[in-house]
């Protein structure tokens, strides 16, 4: 276990590798490996663990009764998932957690996090604060997705999402964490229609794109993604 790496993750920030090593047993933490495409958690599960991605990545998605998949988010190395459900006993998951790549996940018993141990250690309290912050940040990301999917047109949705990615990267040139199908699922649009719109935006000189790499060029003809 790379405790130095764990100390850099949002869940364990503010703690040292030595403190983490002492804490993991107390938190009933254990690692599991998953193959690409394997479901880590299923809709309807009531998890007791927070998952922290150690390698690879995890996709959070929903599947309706007809098999249509909507990608809600992608969890990268160092990030956590299932934290809200783990903190709400008896509430079944409305989504699946799927290995987007071969991955290794650290599972941490949330009850051990929220219950102060007999040593009442300060670093344990720090992890609890970090968990609450992670839940808050996840709620913000879900709000951002709602913002990106609210425009009426595909172009409006794309512009909203790409604008936020550019702001996050502090550059007009950046990579997004989705392939075309995942981006279409995230925005709630048809993949073919999305690809066609991206092609039109390239022809218009608004963007340049290759796979997951984007460059924002001229100002779009639509001054606001919410103009319809």
TrEMBL record:
Keywords: DNA-binding, Transcription, Transcription regulation. GO terms for cellular component: cytosol. It comes from the Bacteria. Pfam families: cNMP_binding (PF00027), HTH_Crp_2 (PF13545). CDD domains: CAP_ED. One of its GO terms (molecular function) is DNA binding. InterPro entries: cNMP-bd_dom, cNMP-bd_dom_sf, Env_Response_Regulators, HTH_CRP, RmlC-like_jellyroll, WH_DNA-bd_sf. Residues 11-134 form the Cyclic nucleotide-binding domain. Residues 152-220 form the HTH crp-type domain. This is Crp/Fnr family transcriptional regulator. It comes from Slackia equolifaciens. The lineage of its organism: Bacteria, Bacillati, Actinomycetota, Coriobacteriia, Eggerthellales.
């Amino acid at each position: 276990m790379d405790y130095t790496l764990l100390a850099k993750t949002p869940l364990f920030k503010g703690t040292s590798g030595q403190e983490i090593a002492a804490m993991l047993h107390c938190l009933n933490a254990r690692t599991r490996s998953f193959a690409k495409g394997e479901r880590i958690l299923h809709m309807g599960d009531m998890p007791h663990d927070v998952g922290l991605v150690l390698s690879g990545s995890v996709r959070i998605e929903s599947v309706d009764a007809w098999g249509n998949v909507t990608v809600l988010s992608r969890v990268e190395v160092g990030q956590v998932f299932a934290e809200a459900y783990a903190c709400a006993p008896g509430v079944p998951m409305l989504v699946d957690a799927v290995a987007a790549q071969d991955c290794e996940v650290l599972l941490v018993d949330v009850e051990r996090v929220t219950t102060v141990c007999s040593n009442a250690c300060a670093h344990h309290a720090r992890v609890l604060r970090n968990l609450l912050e992670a839940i808050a940040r996840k709620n913000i990301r879900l709000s951002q997705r709602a913002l990106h999917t609210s425009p009426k047109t595909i172009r409006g949705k794309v512009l909203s999402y790409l604008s936020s990615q550019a702001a996050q990267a502090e550059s007009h040139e950046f990579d997004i964490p989705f392939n075309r199908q995942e981006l279409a699922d995230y925005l709630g649009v048809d993949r073919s229609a999305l690809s066609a719109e991206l092609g039109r935006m390239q022809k218009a000189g608004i963007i340049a794109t290759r796979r997951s790499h984007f460059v924002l060029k001229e100002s779009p003809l639509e001054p606001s993604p919410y103009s319809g």
